[in-house]
């Protein structure tokens, strides 16, 4: 084949490439750019506005800003100053929970770097907006935990403050109106857009959360923690009713308990510290030491839900030996409770095939249901044991044989970080079972790709 026909074909293309861009405007309209936005009138759907042109940010303003023929399409940008947007897709658990709490681990520098963008955005510039101009792009209250605890997730996670990594917490709210609680239907997916790199502060939010170092309440649940007894729960009540839970009065121990009947956490004082408060979540840390274990508990209550989240971590402060570490009487207990407000209540333990084990103690009027969101490595239930209110126990130690004794060097995380959900409820457990299981399953969040806002 000769090269000549190919050269003949290429000649017009080469000629076009050498022309100034403006000379090509004859095909698309008059060679004027009245608003000087860089787009000639034939391409610009409004040549009198510099903020309207192909590639401009589509905003919820009743006009077609980006000249694609669609007005206020679904991916329109929030009319705030945020430079970046990260689409989030929420996926509902199998059960239904009104206004479920969502905990999103967030690493902004990594997400920006993936998109080839400036990775310096600050974590505290994050805002959440419901997409869709028809809904008015309502902003959802959100809260960032820097130096994250990985609150609703696995092992303890400490993190340098101010490095753009942390946890974002919010409640799903379909209409952005916190006076109404909507559920994600089982299997439903929903989108929220996370905007960041904003200079404007988030608007103030009325939050029902009240938090001190020793008490948390939100209009649903009220929690009291006792610093003289391990920092543990001395009262958890619902809707002003009687207490459904009391750890500090437990006779045989709470929390860390390793093979010594006298090692009762509630006999040891603890230091309580309010780590975070509102608008979404309040979080108290209780630190203590008991029989060779440094114990830390985190108690979290959110603004719109009655359940309490309890995370625990126990670390050996000296070389320890656990005798019979697989035995319930000598294992480490991440949680134990008495339910003094439920005298006459009967414990119900369920181990369904398709969900997490749950425990409930209820009267006909009220009760408290419990299940692990993040269980310890070993978990068991002993409702038949001498203390009928022993709920769950276990530990995270990795050992081949838990039938003998187990050496635990100082510094070992005996319980590396469990997360228990406590759901106070009215009526019998039947009414609360599905909610508890959905809480344990949690809302899944898929992060999309970071987008940079187009220029106006
Ligand atoms: Ca224009
Ligand atoms: Ca628009
Ligand atoms: Ca458009
Ligand atoms: Ca609502």
Task: Explain this structure.
By secondary structure, this protein is mainly beta. It has two domains: 84-206 and 444-452, no CATH class; 210-440, Beta-galactosidase, Chain A, domain 5 (Distorted Sandwich), CATH 2.70.98. Helix content is 7%, strand content 31%. It contains three helices and 24 strands. Strands 13-14-15-16-22-20-19-18 form an eight-stranded antiparallel β-sheet, covered by helices on one side. The longest helix has 14 residues, at 4-17. The radius of gyration is 29 Å and the shape is elongated. The two termini are 51 Å apart. Mean pLDDT is 82; it is low at 1-26. One calcium ion binds next to loops. One calcium ion (CA) binds at residues 35, 37, 39, 44, 46-47, 49-50, 52-53.
Largest sheet: 8 strands, antiparallel
CA-CA gap between termini: 51 Å
CATH top level class name of the largest domain: Mainly Beta
- The helix content, as a percent range, equals under 10%
Q: Determine the oligomeric state from the structure.
A: single chain
Unreliable stretches covering 5 or more consecutive residues: 1-26
> How many discrete domains?
2
Bound molecules: calcium ion
Averaged pLDDT: 82
Gyration radius over CA: 29 Å
Beta content comes to 25-35%
Write the CATH architecture name of the largest domain.
Distorted Sandwich
Query: How many separate helices?
Result: 3
Give the strand order of the largest sheet, numbering strands 1, 2, ... along the chain: 13-14-15-16-22-20-19-18
CATH topology of the largest domain: Beta-galactosidase, Chain A, domain 5
Q: Briefly note the structural class of the backbone.
A: mainly beta
């Amino acid at each position: 084949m000769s090269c000549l026909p190919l050269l003949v074909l290429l000649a017009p293309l080469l000629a076009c490439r050498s022309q100034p861009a403006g000379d090509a405007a004859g095909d698309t309209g008059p060679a004027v750019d009245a608003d000087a936005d860089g787009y000639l009138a034939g391409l610009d759907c409004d040549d009198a506005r510099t903020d309207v042109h192909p590639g401009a940010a589509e905003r919820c303003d009743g006009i077609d800003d980006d000249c694609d023929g669609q007005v206020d399409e679904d991916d329109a940008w929030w009319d705030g100053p945020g430079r970046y947007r990260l689409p989030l897709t929420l996926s509902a658990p199998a059960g239904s929970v009104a206004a479920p709490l969502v905990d999103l681990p967030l690493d902004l520098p990594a997400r920006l770097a993936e998109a080839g963008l400036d990775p310096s955005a600050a974590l505290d510039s994050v805002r959440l907006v419901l997409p869709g101009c028809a809904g008015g792009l309502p902003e959802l209250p959100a809260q960032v935990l820097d130096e994250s605890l990985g609150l609703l997730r696995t092992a303890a996670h400490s993190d340098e403050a101010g490095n753009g990594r942390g946890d974002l917490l919010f409640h799903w709210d379909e209409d952005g109106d916190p006076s109404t609680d909507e559920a994600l239907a089982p299997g439903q997916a929903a989108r929220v857009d996370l905007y960041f790199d904003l200079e404007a502060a988030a608007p103030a939010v009325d939050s029902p959360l009240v938090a001190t170092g020793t008490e948390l309440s939100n209009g649903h649940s009220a929690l009291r923690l006792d610093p003289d007894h391990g920092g543990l729960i001395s009262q958890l009540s619902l809707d002003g009713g009687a207490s459904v839970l009391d750890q500090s009065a437990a006779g045989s121990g709470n929390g860390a308990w390793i093979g010594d009947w006298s090692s009762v956490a509630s006999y040891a004082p603890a230091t309580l510290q309010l780590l975070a408060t509102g608008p979404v979540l309040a979080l108290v840390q209780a630190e203590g030491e008991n029989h060779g274990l440094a114990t830390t508990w985190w108690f979290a209550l959110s603004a719109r839900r009655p359940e309490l989240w309890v995370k625990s971590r126990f670390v050996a402060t000296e070389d320890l030996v656990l005798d019979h570490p697989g035995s319930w009487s000598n294992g480490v207990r991440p949680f134990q409770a008495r339910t003094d407000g439920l005298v006459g209540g009967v414990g119900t333990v369920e181990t369904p095939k398709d969900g997490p084990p749950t425990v409930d103690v209820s009267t006909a009027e009220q009760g408290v249901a419990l299940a692990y969101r993040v269980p310890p490595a070993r978990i068991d239930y002993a409702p038949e044991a001498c203390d009928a209110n022993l709920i769950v126990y276990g530990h995270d130690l990795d050992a081949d044989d838990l039938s003998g004794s187990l050496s635990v060097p100082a510094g070992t995380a005996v319980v590396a970080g469990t997360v228990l959900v406590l759901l106070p409820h009215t009526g019998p457990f039947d009414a609360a079972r599905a909610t508890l299981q959905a809480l344990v399953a949690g809302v899944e969040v898929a992060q999309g790709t970071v987008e940079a806002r187009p220029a106006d």
